[in-house]
């Protein structure tokens, strides 16, 4: 594959006819030539593009697993079929890997031999002058009184001055320049190979963890402290650097008015972190575009939310639960959130609550409470209480955001659930206990990751750009000057130029300079362009 | 935070720029139609000669045409110059619109769809004006003006958004780098796309109909080369935009590449443009086929810009 392949064009077309009776080796060679041909590379290139398309329209497990689940529920018959084609994991699908591996083998199979060829070319001399310079795309011819040797010496000087690589053969000077074009082209393609390798090895050796941290709390960089953790194929958990991060406070600001009212304008998390037990504790202002670098890992601020604080007293009047419970936002614009409180220690019955939280609670036209703004201007909660068995004792894993209501009985509190403002207490009927809304804390969701491939990938990307820009800017061109003695002491000077991929802009300039050095004289014979005809 | 006077001024300037582009478009059109009148001045003669028969007669007619051309030369040049003058003026007003918009909101003026379209068309016109200055490509003017007026019309009618502050994910100097590169590349590819469409139209016949819309358009080979050069200019910029985006994503979202729909489609666009550049150097693919590939690439670019922002939800959903 190349952007501009004037010389190796013959190769891709050659393998068209099938070899007859050449045995296994011959067939392998034929197959290899097919694979590394430009046509195949083009087809593979388009297949890669086509292959990524479903990845942008269907939900992907790697990006949004919850959307995949929703898709399965909506399309009960279609989804399993799509899943069999790995269409929910397009970028990890075997068929996608097959396409890009074939493409990169094809690329390597084309670029590496070309790199070798180019390396030989870089060290070789410019090709000899063709017999008939007049037939080249650019040519000029004139007569002068200067001797052939003088003309050729001048030509050499002029071309060297223009940074051509110059070589003299008998009656002609051959010059070439612009080797950087192919160099840049090859560097671009090799850099792409390196880029793919860097991305692949970065994913294999890196890790990624997500964790929710409430104000006043912290987490340590261990697999167990993450809510979700994904290590690469070659990752080992013992390699996690031992750092700890605490969240002191989080603040968000929003547009208070105007058509985009409620649009966030700034998020900022004040954190402290410690790089191992012996290091000092440092502070950092974690913002969306400013991740914290700690011990080779990067900590990112991904999201935020509200964690209302509750005190739950059980039927015996004892405090069975006290603390902040993270609620998940159900509406990104108003931060109306939902969560559950599980109180397994409550006596005589375990208690559970499903709660709604409104940072700025206001009644709407129907009298229902809604949230009007994402900031906590008037925080209120509504709680739906349950008693019975929370189902935590049987060992089955449960989500902390979902109440398993199978063995729970709702505690009825009339038709209307009255929202609680901070400090208010809800008495549960039947002496089941009470719950107090103590206020709220905020939490942040953090992502911690380590990708050893990111710097090499960036370097490869930059080299690729430099390579392609060089390749596009430089033109490869050849110029030949031939000087032959003619009748009457005259010298016939012929100049021929060939530019691979377009006309040479400086051909005229070269001829002009040559004419200055070896001045043109009116022709003694009829104007001719070919040396063969000169003899007539 | 938002300066309402500057915001209002910016909107007025946008209106002015669109009007001036329309006038420039009319100027270019007048330039072409005066050409048509010139041909129309010799119809009877031509008819007679054609009636007299033979290709020689037609040649004669063309000669007559070139003679009358001199008389109208002055007027034609005036219309052409008028169009270019208006075009440059419109471009200046357009630039002022972008600057005042940025000053009104006190940030880089590319934070929503309205501003993106404005910046992309500005980039396209800039590329055209540079080409006009370097290669005398005034034949491209009327076609590009049509595209620009349509795009700005869509932007002001359907995509308009009042200037305001950016959301936190966009608080980074990378917005100036990544979005500027993407906008420049898109503008460049737009000019290349217009040239390619003209190439495909022009390649259908050996000589354009005299007085037709394509009369001033150069031959197919020149158009193909120009489109190719333009895409060669745009491709590294697009590559840079993707890499700059990856660097930004690395600090904003915690990964440099995550197959977000926008990322996926910018990759697809990149791959198809790369395919075009290769196809143009491959026997059996160059010419018409390569041109169609580049138009597919341009369609991917447009889909990435409009389709992904409005149809698919992702981390680039700023619509």
Explained architecture:
The complex is a heterodimer of chains A (536) and B (319). Chain A is built from 11 helices and 25 strands. Chain A has helices at 10-13, 23-35, 38-57, 65-74, 78-84, 94-122, 148-161, 179-205, 454-473, 507-517, 531-534; strands spanning 138-144, 165-169, 172-177, 207-214, 218-220, 228-231, 243-254, 264-275, 281-286, 292-294, 297-313, 319-324, 328-329, 337-343, 350-358, 361-363, 369-371, 380-388, 408-410, 420-421, 425-428, 433-450, 476-485, 491-500, 520-521. Chain A is elongated, with a radius of gyration of 38 Å. Chain B is flat, with a radius of gyration of 23 Å. Classes of the chains: A alpha+beta (536), B mainly alpha (319). At the A-B interface, α3, β8, β11 and α9 of A face α7 and α8 of B.
Q: List segments of chain A where confidence is low: pLDDT < 50 over at least 5 consecutive residues.
A: 1-15, 525-536
- Overall number of strands of chain A: 25
Find the structural class of chain B using helix and strand composition: mainly alpha
Question: H/E series of chain B, N to C?
Answer: HHHHHHHHH
Tell me the span between the first and last alpha carbons of chain B.
22 Å
